[in-house]
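Figure caption, in words: inputs first, then the predicted bound structure.
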Amino acid sequence: MRLSRYFLPVLKETPSEAQIVSHRYMLRAGMIKQASAGIYSWLPLGFKVLRKIENIIHEEQARAGHIPMLMPTIQSADLWRESGRYDAYGAEMLRITDRHDRDMLFTPTAEELITDIFRANVSSYRDLPLTMYQIQWKFRDEIRPRFGVMRGREFYMKDGYNFDLTKEDALHAYNRHLVSYLRTYERMGLQAIPMRADSGPIGGDDTHEFLVLAETGESEVFYDSEITELKFGDREIDYDSVEQCQAVLEEFTSRYARTDETHDEALFDQVPEERRRTARGIEVGQIFYFGTKYSEAMGATVSDKDGNQVPVHMGSHGIGVSRLLGAIIEASHDDRGIIWPEGVTPFHCGIVNLKTGDAEAEAACDKIHAALIALGLDPLYDDTNERAGAKFATMDLIGLPWRITVGPRGLKNGVVELTSRRTGESEELPPEAAVAKIAEIYGVA
Ligand code: 5CA
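Bound structure (5CA present):
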């Protein structure tokens, strides 16, 4: 993509309404624009990262055997009356009346609608287990929307729902989600720690939140520092294996890690003092097992092996897709801007032409640009007339992990410069070698 043809409305000034770094950088890098309180337009650069995050989630859900689908954002209140949540949800629910005076609402989550789909179509234990999920916009009329996409009113969420015959099966689904979430967040360059939490309006006894440690996090967290040394890495896992999923769950949840909602001082005191940590965290996901809460209320039953009608055991599993952009930036930035992890970067690398108008430099840039595209990569080529300093500042702000700098002086010696955004280190090498290195980094060599 040539920057001269792209839409990247970067801001020089720091917007005064933004209190935390991720919000400031998302506004300054031209990723989002507030439409009204807690509601944002996703400008091209922000939309690109949102899609990357979404794709990682889809890939990891497929790996775990979960089935994608899509439900509407506007739902009928009647379903929510069946579960009792129409009244219980309170002021956070945006209620709408249509032209026929029917009560509708903008979905804050979708346990009711998925349960309705299930009960209309599934009647036998033979069709279980079943896990379906969607990535869809949600609305919660938060009393204090703040920190940009971190606590929005409209936000993008992955919500998955499992249906199982027994509690045991449903707990396997819970464990499977925990494992797949560990992989999902690591692919985004994040360490998200599962912590025992409180279930709130979703209900149920078993629930873990996934927290990214960051000073600006809204939750206070207490944990054993050994937890931060755990990595899921690229281990192969059989998601159908109860034992394998259980083992990962135990490895990642046996040490003390809780949010302030469930913190237990006496238990925490049993952690060796030098390993006790109190910090703040951003909740980027939560998984729930709530048994038959919705299936009983809404009559979602199946016939078991003996022909008895039994309510199914369920859980739901959420990822804050739009919040993740903020969380990743909080975890990965410096005083010049964002530093995107390779897994979610909006463009794979930047190309900066130090001397626009110089025929040789332009030809070299064009060639690098074309070579990267031919490899299936997505570079951003700054072909504008800005000064070199301004071009670097923009590249640093928008946080592309790699930059190739092309100038007449280097070209005389047959080299361009390849710079890492994270370390700031540069090396000089021939243009073809720079392209080959980028290809290798992204695994397309
Ligand atoms: N039905 C369940 C699981 S699908 C559910 O709604 N869970 S939740 O309430 O925990 O939301 C899932 C995730 O959405 C949260 O972990 C959080 O990362 C994100 N989220 C929740 N509220 C907001 C908000 N106001 N703005 C941005 N993200 C949010």
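The first strand starts at residue 32 and ends at 36.
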